[in-house]
Design goal:
4-stranded mixed beta sheet; alpha/beta; 5 helices; flat; about 250 residues; about 20% strand
């Protein structure tokens, strides 16, 4: 019988809480250091700015590892959160139909089925038969098949229609939401990549056009500079000829 007032913790012993004289030490990268004195292991932990964590207290001697315990606990919390998020928490919802149901009520109840399936829950659909309806269950089976066909985008038949006493029962299961989410993520990722590539191509084209325009302007400037002395020389020659004619 456990002692009253003793708190049993699931947390491993770390650093000075480890009271054994020796430990089998594992390095931070998983390397086997061997059996050493606990005091030496604590010094190694301090030098590496890490914690000495007892990972196998029942071993002889206990196994301890050098790790960043704060970072380790944080990663464990993240893993636990992801595990809870991904675990199957589907519930079974139930929707009941009468065999003689009008179209409006059928559509309303079908909307509830779609909402449950979208929420990740299974749906148990029950057709309640009255009196003589029990001897002709085919109408209830047809109604369930019609419902399954109408909601096939959101769920599939897990348990085919079958008669149980006065009722006909069918179970629908939601389609994998994760698959749809991943497909949507891939589609968005592809669209984002295409947009980035288009922007990069547009920037490259604009840059090339600017470079071509700058090159054309530079070439035009050089050609204009080379043509100017020739024009001046021609004008000087013409002027000298005019002066000679005037002297004559």
């Amino acid at each position: 019988m456990p002692r009253i007032g003793v708190i049993i913790s699931d947390e491993p012993r770390i650093n000075d809480e480890i009271r054994v004289s020796q430990v089998r030490l594992i390095g931070p990268n998983g390397e086997q250091v061997g059996v050493i004195a606990t005091s030496v292991a604590l010094n190694l932990a301090k030098e590496a700015n890490l914690d000495l964590v007892e990972v196998a207290p029942n071993a002889k001697p206990p196994v301890a590892k050098l790790i960043d315990y704060g970072k380790f606990k944080y990663n464990e919390k993240i893993k636990a959160r992801e595990a809870r998020r991904n675990q199957n928490t589907a519930e079974i919802k139930e929707i009941r139909f009468r065999l003689k149901i009008d179209d409006h009520d059928f559509e309303v109840k079908k909307g509830h089925v779609v909402r449950f399936l979208n929420g990740g829950d299974k749906v148990k659909v029950t057709i309640m038969l009255r009196g003589r309806e029990q001897s002709r269950p085919i109408g209830g089976v047809e109604m369930l098949q019609r419902l399954a066909a109408d909601v096939e985008e959101y769920g599939s038949i897990e348990s085919a229609p079958k008669q149980e006493g006065r009722n006909i029962i069918m179970t629908l299961a939601p389609k994998g939401k994760k698959v749809h989410t991943q497909s949507e993520q891939r589609r968005r990722g592809a669209e984002s990549r295409a947009e980035r590539q288009a922007r990069q191509a547009a920037r490259l084209a604009a840059k090339q056009e600017a470079q071509a325009q700058a090159a054309a302007e530079a070439k035009a400037a050089v050609n204009g500079h080379d043509a100017q002395p020739k024009t001046s020389a021609k004008n000087n020659t013409t002027k000298e000829g005019s002066n000679a004619e005037d002297e004559n």
